[in-house]
Amino acid sequence: MRISLFVTVTLLPLMLASQVYGHGDHHHNHDHSHAHEHSDHHSHTHDHHHADDHRHHGAHVHGLAHLDVIIAESQLMLSLQSPAMDIVGFEHQPGDAAQQAQLEQALSKLQQPDNVFKVNNGACSLQQLTVNNPFDTAGNHADHVDIQAEYLFDCAAASSISVIDVTLFKHFPDVSSINVQLVTDHDQQQLNLTPNHSRIRIAE
Fold first, then answer.
1. Which residues, 6+ apart, have CB-to-CB distance to 117 below 8 Å?
2. What is the DSSP string of 152-180?
3. Could you say which of 10, 73, 95, 186 has the lowest number of CB atoms within 10 Å?
4. What is the number of structural domains in the chain?
5. How far apart are CA 49 and CA 130, in angstroms?
């Protein structure tokens, strides 16, 4: 059964609540660094804005990003949210050709999953990729602007995924911390990553 990314971010709080009340709290903080290449993937990019009320990541804080990770049946889903300042370098409509190029380069980086994370094992292939352009709405003059990126994989062996290395820090050095919510069929974790401790370990 395919799970849409919209359903993913909508159901995540319910999944977390179910595991907390059904199985007790399981919070594991594992911070290590590692890098691993994974195979070819197909990329589909859509520049559109997702309403913030689909997720509840807390305050907009420069330097702090949020990452939801769900492993369910044969699918791996990741949803990233970060202040535009840390990804693009500004939080206003591009003012000139140079800033427009800066924006396009940043969005292009996010369209390459390896610039955000690398998954060991699992035999996963990218099925859907969405990166929003927060400035695609004319007259967007919000004080705080976030960029969101969502990735959906089909995995032949999702249960064998044991490590996800977050590479976002390397490609976007203004991101200094990432709060992670991880949900699997049998576990849930909440942890904080930093450039020196950027590994997510999936409990067996």
1. 78, 164, 165, 166, 167, 168
2. EEEETTGGG--EEEE-HHHH-TT--EEEE
3. 95
4. 1
5. 10
Contact 140, 125 (CB under 8 A): no
Domain of 82, in residue numbers: 5-201
How many Å apart are CA 78 and CA 153, to the nearest integer?
Answer: 9
**CA separation for the pair 178, 83 (Å, rounded):** 11
113: its two tokens: 């999953």
Helix (H, G, I), strand (E, B) or coil at 53: helix
pLDDT in tens, 20-75: 434 444 444 444 333 333 334 444 444 433 334 334 455 678 999 999 999 999 99
pTM: 0.73
Burial of 42 (0-12, 13-18, 19+ CB in 10 A): exposed
Contact 47, 132 (CB under 8 A): yes
* Tokens read off for 178: 């990432």
